Amino acid sequence: MALLTALAIDEARALGRLFGVEVEALRPIARGSVNSNFELGLAGGKKAFLRIYEESDHDAVVTQNRLLRHLVEHGVPTPAPLKRDNGGTVAEHAGKPVVLFPFCEGDFVCQRAVDARRLDIVGRALATIHRAGEDYADAPPNRFGPDALRDRITALRARPLPSELARTVESLAERLTAITASQETVIHGDVFRDNVLWRDDGSLSAIVDFESASCGSAAFDLMVTLLAWCFTDRLDVTLARALVNAYEAVRPLDPDELAACYPEARAACVRFGITRITDYELRPRDVVVHKDYRRFVGRLEALEAIGERHFAAWLRGTAS
After folding, report:
1. How far is Cα 17 from Cα 38, in angstroms, rounded to an integer?
2. What are the angstrom distances between the C-alpha of 170 and each of 175, 253, 270, 271, 304?
3. Residue 116 contacts by C-beta under 8 Å, 6 or more apart in sequence?
4. What is the pLDDT of residue 14?
5. 32-81 tens-digit pLDDT
6. Which residues make up the CATH 3.30.200.20 domain(s) of the chain?
7. Is residue 1 scored above 50 in pLDDT?
8. Mind spelling out the 3-state secondary structure of the chain?
9. Nearest in space to 97 (alpha carbons), one of 52, 130, 43, 162
10. pTM reported for the whole predicted model
11. Which of 33-42, 223-232, 247-256 is predicted least confidently?
């Protein structure tokens, strides 16, 4: 559970007034790993979602909110931030940015519930994000680019680590040398199952948590999603092809993007391997929901077993 900043009901009511809503109830949301999130009960039976940003400053959140409004206007299924009394979208609590959103009903699905139908929906939604981002010039830079990851490696090397973890860090560092930054469109960067809400009838409610959204590689974002949704104890070929086919129904991959899928998939494994070590493995277990870096180390090994030469054909179902 990520609840890093406390919020009392009276404080929530004061914040709600800035956004023109009357808060009657407050419930911490025991999900997430970076920000502090709350469900607000409003007068009249409605609800809102309140987020306290723990790592982003005011200007970064303003930039993110502008991007969200652009995406909503271009058909991306995500809630736009509410406007407040001064015309902006950001307030402050405990010296940290606060934003209110319409509350999206829905729940996340477990891996057992992932099937081709859901991946058809997710793939099309991801392609819609990338389409909407192609003409957007104000996307923030990637906070998890190669330089930032190298800084994390340097910090890890300066710490005493268990021998197995130290070997993993060096393995990831070696692979990081081959990763380059690409800036093509707006990417979400984190379309994991816990960032996609579904209604009871199986329809998509919303894709949420655009805090990692940035200017980046569409192939990278597609591969992050593939690795998050299409992997159990192995990469599921049927699910992976369903995702890619759905994506290409909205935004076909050009030959360069298709060729980039394998290195970008490896880059995604390195990125999440490193950040899960720094953000989860080395933090107390009762502060945030723990996410195991070993899962992405295993996915990296699975990718390398397939090999670059066969990966594009493997994705499109033409491999022999």
Report:
1. 16
2. 9, 33, 11, 13, 17
3. 238, 239, 242
4. 98
5. 667 899 999 999 999 999 999 998 999 999 999 999 999 999 999 999 99
6. 9-102
7. no
8. CCCCCCCCHHHHHHHHHHCCCCEEEEEECCCCCCCEEEEEEEHHHCEEEEEECCCCCHHHHHHHHHHHHHHHHCCCCCCCCCCCCCCCCCEEECCEEEEEEECCCCECCCHHHCCHHHHHHHHHHHHHHHHHHCCCCCCCCCCCCHHHHHHHHHHHHCCCCCHHHHHHHHHHHHHHCCCCCCCCEEECCCCCHHHEEECCCCCEEEECCCCCCEEECHHHHHHHHHHHHCECCCECHHHHHHHHHHHHHHCCCCHHHHHHHHHHHHHHHHHHHHHHHHHHHCCCCCCCCCCCCHHHHHHHHHHHHHCHHHHHHHHHCCCC
9. 52
10. 0.92
11. 33-42
Superfamily of domain 111-316: Aminoglycoside phosphotransferase (APH), C-terminal lobe (3.90.1200.10)
Q: Alpha-carbon Rg of the chain, whole angstroms?
A: 20
Res. 102: pLDDT tops 50: yes
CATH class of the domain defined by 9-102: alpha beta
Q: What is the pLDDT of residue 314?
A: 80
Query: Which residue intervals of the chain bear CATH 3.90.1200.10?
Result: 111-316
Residues 6+ apart with CB under 8 A from 261: 219, 222, 223, 253, 311, 312, 315
Q: Which residues pair with 97 in a beta bridge?
A: 92
Mean pLDDT within 90-96? 97
Residue 2 pLDDT exceeds 70: no
Angle between helices 237-250 and 218-229 (to 10 degrees): 140
